[in-house]
Amino acid sequence: MDQQNKNLSVIKDKDVSEQEAVREYVDAIENNIEYYKEWAAIYQTQRDIARSKVSQLEMKVLQLQHIIIQNERMQ
To answer: What is the C-alpha separation between 16 and 12, in angstroms, rounded?
Structure first.
């Protein structure tokens, strides 16, 4: 009977330890999800900034092209 109790105890300990390992794994995955969400937000912000700068540069190009055309007409 003692051996059976020991065996049951080992099985229970193993189950608890497996559950703890699974919980730790789930926690690690959740941390990874949060990490990538943060990077996605940073990436989106950087992308938006880059798009804004591109738009500003495109406007500058159009302005300069307009000036060039005006200067050519005046000559």
So the answer is: 6
